[in-house]
TrEMBL record, chain A:
This is Eukaryotic translation initiation factor 3 subunit H. Residues 307-326 are annotated as: Disordered. Residues 29-178 form the MPN domain. One of its GO terms (cellular component) is eukaryotic 48S preinitiation complex. Component of the eukaryotic translation initiation factor 3 (eIF-3) complex, which is involved in protein synthesis of a specialized repertoire of mRNAs and, together with other initiation factors, stimulates binding of mRNA and methionyl-tRNAi to the 40S ribosome. The eIF-3 complex specifically targets and initiates translation of a subset of mRNAs involved in cell proliferation. Keywords: Cytoplasm, Initiation factor, Protein biosynthesis. It comes from Penicillium malachiteum.
TrEMBL record, chain B:
Belongs to the eIF-3 subunit F family. GO terms for molecular function: metallopeptidase activity; translation initiation factor activity; translation initiation factor binding. GO terms for biological process: formation of cytoplasmic translation initiation complex. InterPro entries: eIF3f (IPR027531), EIF3F/CSN6-like_C (IPR024969), JAMM/MPN+_dom (IPR000555), MPN (IPR037518). This is Eukaryotic translation initiation factor 3 subunit F. It is found in: Cytoplasm. Residues 330-342 have a biased composition (Basic and acidic residues). Its main location: cytoplasm. It comes from the Eukaryota. Pfam families: JAB, MitMem_reg. Component of the eukaryotic translation initiation factor 3 (eIF-3) complex, which is involved in protein synthesis of a specialized repertoire of mRNAs and, together with other initiation factors, stimulates binding of mRNA and methionyl-tRNAi to the 40S ribosome. The eIF-3 complex specifically targets and initiates translation of a subset of mRNAs involved in cell proliferation. It comes from Penicillium malachiteum. Component of the eukaryotic translation initiation factor 3 (eIF-3) complex.
């Protein structure tokens, strides 16, 4: 149980925070505009490589407020490793790297000096088309929830989906059930049966809310109001086009999501789905192989036991260790894979719903008679 | 957005012999997250502080003619009547930490959250533009963002020239020269800024992240509002309530001419093709999901059927068969769907 006093410069109040084990579970995540912009910047700079960073903020009641963030340094990979698919992705593993734990502690210590909420509340990662369900994310989040602080989240910013119009920022936590299983690596069939853990239960998704400070609100209002008063009507077409009003305004709604280019998105999604099927098959084969080897080993052990028993019946029964369970995580992999596929298909669904809407609109517009029929 | 009344050549700094001094104009580009950082810091200042300062980081174009401010971090400082204290140790450590994670960014200058320039500004400016730890030989950019309550936020960018006759005077004086700046945001920032701007009119200053369909709805509503506005204008011109403008008319005509002229049959065909693609992909994606779930369920459920290793093996094999059969089914299913849609 820890107790600490936190001074909130925004509301000018002192808050006494009691950090008890039995707190209400986190229900929502509130992200400051600053963090949104910082994450977008970082993720885009490194795109398509994964970018990761740390989040700081405050945990108030059952809302996690994320008020600042910083990027994790990445150890540059030598160029030849680009050809090696098996090479671990240093950026994706960065949040749980030892060097970065020190970096994070140092950074948070520095931030405390300038009144930033200096509590680590999680980490963020970039994704491409929702491909974030993988071992790296699981292990990072497990590390955070286990080692650092139970009340932490993973924010996932999907760069490709955000480029299509709507910002894609989601918050995830590992469910308690999954943590339990992951801790003891209970992912063989019997255990899964017992715990009834399914792929839907891996993550808990938390609703994300974007929050602006007063200053940012006024800044945004100011951006949208042109400084100069409306002048006389333009004299010519060229003058009209050159006038500041015809430049797209800074924050005018993003009309990118009216675009009708659907093929690239579908193509990319199909590719990802095919990859997932491939993975799934590999996992199934691995699992089968494991089962066969297990069977054989078991057979051998049994034979040997019988032999020993015959040889020396008086001796105590052997304490033969069970065969090494090398691939117990096999089921975990395929579970993750299924979760990933679910992610893809939801993504496709949501895309389809808006696309069909757009397409019918276009058709209705170009063929006005058809829709009336 | 820049103040357009002033155009000055860049002042010459103290240049070592041999390097050609550059007097090309300097343009400052500010990215939104840097401004947001500054505003955040301004909110988090100590109650007794009038203004706060911090370091600006970013990139410089090759000829040094453009400075892009990408991020900022706060530096603690305290001002009294006759002295100013800036935590330089903190600045150095933080800079080192920041550069570790963002190796491509460099120190470009500093910011303050008050428009006022005073002796302390000159002192700090001279530190940031100095040799060694400063930006020398490039000029250091000084950005002021006024955050006075009740007034507009005012942003100004400056660079400085050394003035002063003696060495002591030169250390605490500087001639600040305003330079033009612009706020630039990338394509990628757009979606984020849009989400942030959604919250601007709400009482709690917050908004939720929208789904695809909601975003589409909003975009369409916006377009409809724009069309309404234009047609209202056109109507009032026809009713001779508003002054007519040839340029405006020409512009609207050009916009209307953008509507494509295509054969109805072509539209029909393209439409059907695409809608089929979309629906088939959606259908397949969901089928794959179901298949995988089924496969996983079978893998964990097989033991309840009794038997031992053999049953397991059998289960596996059967499952694979199922899957293969499923694959064929998918393909068979696909054709009828397409026919159905056609």
């Amino acid at each position: 149980m820890a107790e600490y006093v936190s001074w909130n410069p925004v509301t000018q109040t002192v808050r006494l925070i009691w950090n008890l084990r039995a707190q209400a579970p986190l229900a929502a995540v509130k992200v400051e505009a600053l963090v949104v912009m910082k994450i977008i910047k970082h993720c885009n700079q490194t795109f398509p490589t994964t970018a990761t960073g740390s989040l700081v903020g405050m945990d108030i009641d059952n809302t996690l407020e994320i008020t600042n963030s910083f990027a994790f340094p990445v150890v540059e990979m030598p160029t030849e490793s680009h050809f090696d698919n098996a090479a671990p992705n240093p950026a994706a593993a960065a949040p749980r790297a030892k060097a970065n734990a020190a970096y994070q502690a140092e950074m948070i210590r520095m931030m405390r000096e300038v009144n930033v909420d200096a509590n680590n509340v999680g980490w963020y990662t970039s994704a491409n088309m929702g491909n974030f369900v993988n071992m790296n994310v699981i292990e990072n989040q497990f590390y955070y929830q286990k080692e650092m602080n139970e009340r932490t989240v993973a924010l996932v910013h999907d760069v490709s989906r955000s480029a299509q119009g709507a910002l894609s920022l989601r918050a995830f936590r590992l469910s308690a059930k999954f943590i339990e299983a992951f801790k003891e690596n209970k992912f063989n069939s019997e255990e899964l049966q017992k715990s009834n853990l399914r792929y839907q239960d891996i993550f808990d998704e938390l609703p994300v809310e974007i929050h602006n400070s007063h200053l940012i609100t006024s800044f945004i209002h100011q951006l949208q109001t042109p400084k100069t008063a409306p002048t006389d009507l333009p004299a010519s077409l060229a003058a009209l086009e050159a006038s500041p009003f015809s430049q797209s305004s800074v924050l005018s709604p993003n009309l990118d999501n009216l675009s009708l280019s659907i093929d690239p998105f579908l193509e990319k999604n199909c590719d990802l789905l095919l990859d997932s099927i491939e993975n799934h098959n590999t996992e199934v084969n691995n699992y089968q192989y494991y089962q066969r080897v297990l069977g054989r080993e078991q057979q051998k052990i049994n034979n040997w036991k019988q032999k020993r028993a015959q040889e020396n019946a008086t001796r105590a029964t052997l304490k033969q260790p069970p065969p090494p369970r090398g691939r117990v995580a096999a089921r975990l992999e395929s579970m993750l894979n299924t979760r990933q596929v679910e992610q893809f298909s939801r993504q496709v669904d949501s895309f389809v719903s808006s696309t069909t809407g757009k397409m019918f609109a276009v058709k209705g517009n170009l063929l006005p008679g058809e829709t009336a029929k | 957005m820049a103040d357009s009344f002033l155009h000055l050549a860049r002042p010459l700094g103290p240049v070592s012999v041999g390097t050609a001094p550059t007097t090309a104009p300097l343009n400052v580009v500010i990215q939104p997250q840097a401004i947001f950082s500054i505003l955040d810091h301004s909110l988090r200042r100590n109650a007794d502080q009038e203004r706060v300062i911090g370091t600006l980081l970013g990139t410089r174009s090759e000829d040094g003619g453009e400075v892009e401010v990408r991020s900022a971090f706060a530096v603690g400082h305290s001002e009294a009547e006759d002295q100013v204290e800036v935590d330089m140790e903190y600045h150095k450590q933080m800079l080192a930490l920041h550069l570790k994670a963002n190796p491509r960014e460099v120190l470009v200058g500093w910011y303050a959250t008050a428009s006022e320039l005073n002796t302390f500004s000159a002192l700090i400016q001279n530190f940031y533009s100095g040799q060694g730890d400063g930006t020398w030989p490039h000029p250091a950019v000084h950005l002021t963002v006024s955050t006075e309550p009740g007034k507009d936020l005012e942003t100004r960018a400056y660079i400085s020239a050394p003035v002063g006759v003696t060495a002591e005077r030169a250390a605490d004086s500087a001639a600040f020269i305003p330079v033009p700046y612009e706020l630039r945001y990338g394509e990628a920032d757009k979606s984020g800024l849009e989400a942030i701007a959604n919250a601007k009119d709400s009482e709690e200053r917050s908004t939720t992240v929208t789904s695809d369909v909601e975003a589409l709805e909003r975009a369409i509503e916006e377009v409809i509002a724009m069309i309404d506005r234009v047609s209202r204008y056109v109507e009032s011109v026809i009713d001779e309530e508003a002054p007519a403008s040839t340029a405006m008319g020409q512009f609207l005509l050009n916009a209307l001419a953008l509507a494509p002229k295509v054969e109805p049959a072509d539209i029909e065909r393209d439409f059907n093709n695409h809608i089929q693609d979309v629906l088939v992909v959606s259908y397949l994606a969901n089928t794959i999901r179901t298949q995988m779930e089924l496969s996983n369920r079978l893998a964990t459920a097989q033991l309840t059927l009794g038997g031992g290793e053999a049953a397991k093996e059998g289960g596996e094999g059967q499952r694979n068969n199922n899957q293969r059969k499923g694959g064929r089914n998918q393909r068979q299913d696909r054709a009828p769907t397409e026919e159905a849609r056609a």
